[in-house]
Structure formats: C-alpha cells, structure tokens
Amino acid sequence: MNIDGHLKHIMAQNDDENESQLQLISIEDSSNASYIAIPTSESPQLLMALPVQHIETNFTPRITYKTAGGKPLLQWWRRRTSLEQFFILLTFLMATTIIILLTLFLSLNDDITNLKKKEFSNTDSNKKIFEDIEKRVCLTKGCIQAANNLLMAMNLSADPCDNFFEYACGQWNRDHMIPDDMFAYGTFASVRENVRQQMRVLLESDEQPKSRSIKMTHIAYQTCMNVSKIESVKSSQLLKSLRQLAKWPLLDNNNNNNKNWNENLFNLTNILASSRRYFGNEIFFQIYVYADAKNTTRNILYLDQGALGLGRGSRDYYLNATMFAKHLNAYRKYQLDIIKLLLDDANITYDLSQLIIDLNDIINFETKFAEIIVPEDDRRNSTRLYNGKIISDLYTLFPKIDWLNFFYQISPISIHNLIKNNTQIIIGEVDYMYNIATLINNNSNYLLANYIFWRIVHSWVKILDGRYEDIKHVFLRVMTGQQTKSPRWKECAQVTIGLLPLAGGALYVREHFDSTDKQEALKMIANLQEAFKELVDESDWMDEETKKVAIEKAVSMINNIGYPDFINNYTALDKHYEKLNFTSDDSYFDLLRKVLMWSQEKEFLRMKEPFDKREFEVSPAVVNAFYSPEKNALTFPAGILKPPFFSGTYPKMVNYGAIGAVIGHEVTHGFDDQGSQYDKDGNLLNWWNVDSYNGFAKRKECIINQYSSYVVPNTDYKVNGKLTQGENIADNGGVKEAYRAYRKYIKQLGHEEPHLPGFQNFSNDQIFFLSYAHFWCGHKKEAAALQQVLIDEHSPEVFRVIGVLSNLPEFSKAYNCPQGSQLNPLKRCTVW
Known about the structure:
34 helices
C-alpha cells in the first residue's frame, strides 16, 4: 500500500514508485513491479523502462526580428537542433523566472526598507508597524520557492468551490505538456525526474567508489548504457538460454517438417521451474516467501494466482474484445513481429500462415486464462486469501506438477531440508488452483510450451537490441499513449536503482539527503499519529474497547525514514551484497541473470530466518511512501522528502498540506478496508467489535459509492470504487489528519504563520489545501487513463483532490463554498 503505486509482499525492490504511474507502465505481470528490478514477469518495469519524466512547456516564442545582415532569426532558430532549442528555451525560462522572483523580492524588500527609513522609524509604535509587516509576509528563500510553486500552477479564473483541481493545477497542466517519451506527467513525476537526474550525475562520475557495492552500481549503469555491446549480442544469448531450457515448438518445429519437437518429452514441472529459476517468470503461479500473516514472527511460503501477459488486473482487455479490439490487435501484431524477428535471428524458416495460427492459439489460451483469474477488487479480504495447506496438498489441487521437485529446482540446496511434503504453505486462491489445473489439462503440451516460451520472451524483450525495442514501443504507444522511447540514460539510471536498491540509495543519500529532514519528518509523523488518535477518540460509531485497540495499533507503527542506517557503513553495505558477483566484462543479459539468481536465493533463504519487521524494503532513491500491514510499518524514502512536497525551509502550512497528507495517508492505510484486518503486531486478526465493524463497513460503502460515481477523464469509464476504496479511505483520512495536526501546531505556536509572498489575501488554511492539491497536479494520455481505471488501486489525480476536499467541512469553510456546491455537497462521506 503506498501513495502512488502498489506495495504488497515485497521480496526485493526497485522503483514502481510504479506509482499509479508505475503501475501503468507495467503492462506485464506486475504484482511486485514496484520493487523487483530483475527481468521477471513480476517485474517488467526493468524491461519496459519506467516513465521518464522531464519538465517541458508549451511556450514557443515567435522569433521575427532580423540580424544585422538581414536574415531572419527564425532561420537561425530552425537551424538549431532540438536539443539546442530545448536548452535555449530552458535558459530563457529560468532567467525569466529568476527575474520575476527577484523583482517580487526586491519590491517587498523595498517596502520594508522604506519603512525603516521613515523619520518615525525610531519610535516604539512605528517599530511595531515594521515588525508587523515582517511578520505578515515570509520572505525567506523557502517561502519564495513555495509561493512560486503554488502560484505558477493555479488557474485563478476557476471557481475553487466548483473544481478545486482546476483552480490549483489548471495552469500547471497547461504549462507542462506530457513529454513524448511519457504517457503521464505531474508534480510527482517531476520529482522522480529530478532524482533520476541526480542519480545520473552520480553514476557517471569519475570518482573512484570506496565501496565494492557502490562500484557495482557504476558497472550496472555502464553495462546498461553500452548499447553497442547490446546491439552486437542481439538476441543470441536469449536464444541460447531458451534452447537450454527446453525445446520450443516455434523454434524447433521448423526446417525439418515438425520433427524436432516431441510432445511426449514435454515436462511441465521442469519447464515451469526453469522459467522461474533462470528467467524469473511466474506465469501460472506467484510464489514468494514472506511473513506468515497469522504469525508475523516467521516467514512462510506463499502460492497465489498467476498473471496475464498484459499485466495483473488486465482481464478486461481479453474479456471485452469489442471495446478493446484495438489493444488486442496491437498485442497480436507485437507478438507476431517479435517472434518473426526471433526466428530470423535463429536462421529458421517458417510457414507464416502456420505461425499466425499458433500465435492465435496463444491469445485464445490467454483469454481462457483471463476467465479464471480472480479480479483484484474481489481479493481485498485477506482472510479469504489465507488458506493454510501443506505441500502434499498441492498434488491434489494440481496433480500435473511434481511439487517437491518443483520447489527443489527453484530454491537453494541449503534450504531443501525445510521443504518437505508436510511443509506449510499458504494458498491465495484455492478455486483458481483447480481451474488452472483444468485449463492446462484441456490443452496440448504443444500449446503450453508455446505459451510459456512466449511469456519468457515477452518479459525479456526490453533488454534486447534496438530492433526489439522498436517493436515493443509501437505496442506501448497503443497501450499507454507514449509516443517515443525514453532516453537510454533515464532507463539505465532507473534500472540501476532497481537492481541494487540499497547501494544506489547509499550513493543517493550521501549527496542528496539532509539528516535534519529525517528529524523533521519524525516529528510530523508523531503529530499525525496523535491527530489520528484524536479522530478515533471522537468517533461516535466505535465502542471503547475497539477504540483502545485502534489507538494501540497507531502508536505501535514502525517508522522507516529516509534510509536504513547501515547503508552509510560501507563495510555493512558490502556484506549485504557479498554473494552477488558481476564485472564490467559481463554482458547486460548475463548481469541481469546474475542479479536475478542472487535475488531469488536471498528470498528463499528467508525461510531460515524470522521475519524482520524493521527491514527497509525499498530503495532510499524511490519517490513514494509505503505502509506494510504485516509489519505495521511506515516507510518514507529519502526520494519523497524533497521539494515541492517537503523542505525544512518551507512554512508548516505547505509541508503539512503536502508531505503531511502523505504521512496521514500511510497511517490511515493501517485502518482502511485491508489494513484494518491486521492487529498492531501485523497479524491477520479480527480485533473489531461487531457493532463497530458494522459502522466501519457502512462508512466505507459510502466511499465506494462516492468514487464509483466519478467518470474518468478522457474515457467513458467510471472509477472502480471497490478497487480503489483503500486508497480513497487513506486519502480522506490523511488530509483530515494533516489539517488537524497543522492547526494543533498553530495553536501551540500561539499565532498564525506569516503569509507567503503574493498570497497576502489567502488564509494559511487556504494555502494548506492548495499545497495538498498541488501535490497531485498532472495529467495522462487517454490510453494511460483507461489503463489506470482498469488496473490501478488509486483514483485519478483529479478525484484524489475533489473527492477528498468535498468531504471536508474545513475546506468549504476555508474557501467559503456555498452549500450545495461541488466542494460543499449536502452529503459527505467520512470514515476517519
């Protein structure tokens, strides 16, 4: 559960930041896409690249003046490269912004200076006038920066009581076009872009690293950047590895009259185990080691349903063929073009008509696969997903697999003594196991082999040479609206963070994180937790015992801020990576395989260890925030503790409106429809009084209905209120808690904060809500907006603003909204 993406059962990590943004880029299997940067079907963002994000503007000056020689400057402009034009415009815009801010500052400063020079300036009464002016307007660098961020985003002609998103973000969205190499862009994306830029500088530095782990980040980045070597290898290493895995009908049933592939030699156990171990692909099953949800002192094996080729949550693409015909046709063309190119690389001749028949069979099989996948909005009851079994039970559920052999193949030898027929395992979807077994039994080994191999290729296409990338990009253009490929350095910076999250994080925080920010964040968390406790105490629908348990859970939350301390100790950091070995001589393909094998081994070795609730599971360079129900832990990486969301130089009204609402969001996740199923120790346990839970259920149903009424911009779809309820509850609670914590701060301070420059006519409460809305400024391509509503647990940004604020009387009071207006409705929904 996170502010902008999906955090669930993390075993390793990468970015997924795949945020709603991260989740959208991941159109392959993506249950752990936010964290595992190895090329698995569960971590496709490495193969597809994260959304690269940089600030552009739709400002294009008309150049009509002439040079001394009489030639139009327009001709000179046209002779500039696109890169030169970009930097010229960027320099102009930066200079203009500096002049505006300097003028504003000097103007305000002159007013104060003039007052000082008045002949009455030495009198006590007039000194007070001067002091009052200084108190009324904050002129620090932080205040000027915060004011500029908010003011430049606003559309002051919009009615804040009708559409506060347009009021707070209208100008930002018009000034910041979606770059061609992205499908979405917003303030969140701009911060991620800044982090990637910072990582690029660090990774391209000539400074000799003092740590082996830090040196490995440089090697990983440089290997990814070595396009000439990748181009020379082409698909040869992938083809060689596929042939070592098993025989693939599409590769081996050509040239020799279909005699090279023997259906009777097909072994489902071996091919599924090898695809998982050597390629990271989990097609029909997701298998991982994580905390036992009913006893979080230990780790345990989990087995859950698999995911489709178009990603977790993508059932509608297959099952609504009329509405999504364009997308499925793009998938078919992408599949055909990739396989044709692969066959050409392998010097295999093929019958095109037969190839099309085989690939159509793959799509038809995947459509039947989609029919048995349980939709994500039906998977929010954690108790239903906790089905304790032992490994021997799997033979009854799915007899075609030799399960002990399967687990032995995918795990290190050192834990084989822990894997026996009576070893406990948690099954997520029992009916799915029966259904997938039936589906597999009803199809030929020939088709199954083609499908499994296709899914492996699909997951690894992104790391092949440019020919394959070009084909995939044509496909992504249809699925997300992204027009061009990302610059290589952006992809490689993100890949590096994903491959070596803690080493990359150590490199980042050493240069770009102030330890004082960590202390300020801890203070804010304590204030937000206190605000939540007050809301629980004041609730009239909870009995006293349930209130007591809820408060105990809130105060017991573990706080992970910035980064884990040990990464600043290079000896400890190197020990973390001591069994991971790769060098600059490795190809990109080999390097990724080595990280994959190392990561999978570390995951299974957890079976020998107790569950570590204090483990920092994400890279500090990630721009996101997280809550783990099994740990009852909040995590705020260094990457998100950055302007414009947070700064130690910002006034509290800005910080509480932005990062304060994020903190409150994550705190509230502990008490949303899913987090509320876990106790203070992270155990899946019902701690609710029946009447109190009924009151909770009634309130969350109100949230479901409210958000289900919203039509997603640029689509005919409505928000899935059931799927997004957890995030919506967290958004609503988070802002309410942040506002309460801010007002408590002001009460303790004894007076209001000075105004931001240029906002003298705004109350500080109004600035608080502006800061919250500014956090979500941004927009998406139509295809990406559609994909979000299908697969993302987060509501579109516009509804994260107006949906929340319409439920807050404090907002309508601050902006004096008339009753019955959009942001001051007659009916409101409140959970916390």
